[in-house]
Amino acid sequence: MxxxxxxxxxxxxxxxxxxxxxxxxxxxxxxxxLAVLSLAMSLTSTTTGTASAVFKIFLVVSALVSLTVGIxxxxxxxxxxxxxxxxxxxIFSGVVSxxxxxxxxxxxxxxxxxxxxxxxxxxxxxxxxxxxxxSDIQIFQLADKWRTGLSRxxxxxxxxxxxxxxxxxxxxxxxQFWIEMGRDWHAGPWRHGxxxxxxxxxxxIRLDFKEDDDGAAIxxxxxxxxxxxxxxVVQLAQEMSETALGQAREATS
Length: 253
Prior knowledge:
The chain is α+β, with helices and mostly antiparallel strands. The chain has helices at 2-44, 50-74, 87-110, 115-128, 152-162, 231-252; strands at 81-83, 133-135, 137-148, 168-173, 176-181, 204-212, 215-227.
């Protein structure tokens, strides 16, 4: 029953993550569209005098920046931004949108020949959209260090033997021993094992062999990160890393 409840909760978080992603993409498209509108109005507006020319340049640059941010919001690379509209964020965005639309319509009716003044308001509305989102990236970081009386080659041999398990891969790169853990590694009953099917990145551990005046030491380091809706994935990666670190320390101490 507990496993079933955990699975349903995890599926619900994944659905929420998918909904947040759709909202973020739509917001990015709206922001990019408003930036294009402001850019078109700025470029087609007539300018008289140095001040007007400087203001027009400011609008063009601002529109290009907003367009870039909008494209970034709509891209898959920006998965770390989630929809999180608090009361004050909604009030701020709503007030800016109402004032912007009202003044934009007013300027188009009263003074349609000077589009530069009206072009500022789509930018203000577009720039208020990112305030409805926040970054929510979960991170774990593990580090450990222990003494050893073994030589480097013997340490590497023992690690290779210990981690010759299904779901693991080992490699030596630049005199560092790397351990990569896959979703199908079953070294123990993982508390967050239900998240294995959502694991897309293999967590890794880096081990360094350091020699000093007192002998030798092994330094181990591992880290991982993921976005909200997949919190159990990073928890599972942390469990795997902690288990692997324990096995490495036991084999080489």
